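User: Run a structure prediction on this.
Assistant: Running it now.
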Amino acid sequence: MTPLDHGAAVAAETARFVAAVDRADPALPVPSCPDWTLADLVRHAGSVQRWFTVLLRQRIQEPPRSREVDLRLPEHPEDYPAWLADSAAQAAAAFAETDLDAPMWAWGADQHARFWVRRMLFETLVHRVDAELALGRTPTVEPALAADGVDEFLTNLPFATLFAPHTAELRAEHRTIRFTRTDGDGDWLVRLRPDGFALDRDADDTPADATLRAGAADLLLLLYGRLDRTAPGIQASGDDELLTHWFAHSAF
């Protein structure tokens, strides 16, 4: 996917999110985000979109010193869905005004403005899934989009220690985990070393110590902790202790 595709997908995912929560009870618990209600979930998603939008407009070149943003949050949670829709509209305007290939500070691997568009997309998508799960629905994710999300997650996870400190424990004596998509092209090998871990993009024929096989959407939700590796449709093989270690320390 291109940065423009990611921008269009942010709009589409936000629209699905808004449609899901519109007229829903804001106090409804969200099981996949313990201690959160739907109101908390929507507020978080819109806040992230607005913060990323500010970063894009400023095209920051170093880590921000503050996350304070004028959220313009409505007084009543019943108005949060419309506010979330407006958050996405502001983001879309920023995308259109920004050279998404311009150099820019980012916490992840891609030090360009486009990083924030892609990150906003999957932040929004996963929380749209959370909302639908809370409402008793069965979420769907388009396979090609999900595969891009798997790649984005595994590419950036090694850089996430600032807000996901347990990822610093993802190290081992040269062990490997393979994530394989079963509904199209997609194969990702993660190498855990004594000094850390990283995605290896040139290891198609390398044997892995543990392997997880599933459709792209299930792989994405598995990585984000919205599915367990024992769920139907997910095939786990190899070193179970290694997989336990991975999922105990890869929460994002």
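The chain has two domains: 3-139, 146-249.
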